[in-house]
Design brief:
12% strand; two-stranded parallel ribbon; single chain; Rossmann fold; 5 strands; 164 residues
Length: 164
């Protein structure tokens, strides 16, 4: 399912997140790519309420579909350790070798146009509605993700520091 661009079921993801929060506590955590659906978001809020914890910040990276296409087209991943980079990085242009484990940097099998189209459709129908859900709670902060990673990282870091 994941290789075709679909999402892992809400039930599985929610169970994993709930187990993690019970084990580590509901304070001082960052989730990347969760929640991705409205049922996941609603479940997260319910879990946090049971743990007497609040959701302080949701960061929404706004990225154009063209930028997504360009980044996916240039994505390389280490077949050994999972390190991910871009083929446009001068460091890897002539020698696609992982700097951490010397494994081969390769394109992922699921980085093709048909899978991307499925992912984008999943995003539009299942993830985009989360923006208004979190805006109503006044925790959503939008960041222009089309910029270079240093600028995006700086904005994200600033938001997190401001919440400390």
């Amino acid at each position: 399912m994941l290789q075709s661009g679909g999402l892992v079921s809400d039930k599985i993801i929610i169970e994993l997140i709930e187990d993690w929060l019970r084990l580590h506590g509901g304070h001082g955590f960052v989730f990347d790519g969760f929640p991705r659906t409205l049922p996941q978001a609603e479940s997260l809020m319910s879990i946090l309420a049971r743990l007497r914890s609040a959701l302080d910040l949701v960061i929404w990276l706004e990225v154009s579909e063209q930028t997504v296409r360009d980044r996916i087209a240039g994505r390389l991943q280490c077949g050994e350790c999972g390190f991910t980079t871009s083929s446009s990085s001068a460091q890897f242009a002539n020698r696609p070798i992982c700097p951490y484990c010397d494994g081969p940097l390769e394109r992922r099998n699921d980085d093709d146009l048909s899978v991307l189209q499925t992912r984008l459709q999943e995003f539009r129908t299942k993830t985009e509605p989360l923006a208004s859900f979190f805006e109503k709670m006044s925790v959503l902060h939008r960041i222009d993700g089309n910029r270079d990673r240093e600028a995006v990282f700086s904005d994200i870091s600033r938001l997190i520091e401001d919440k400390r």
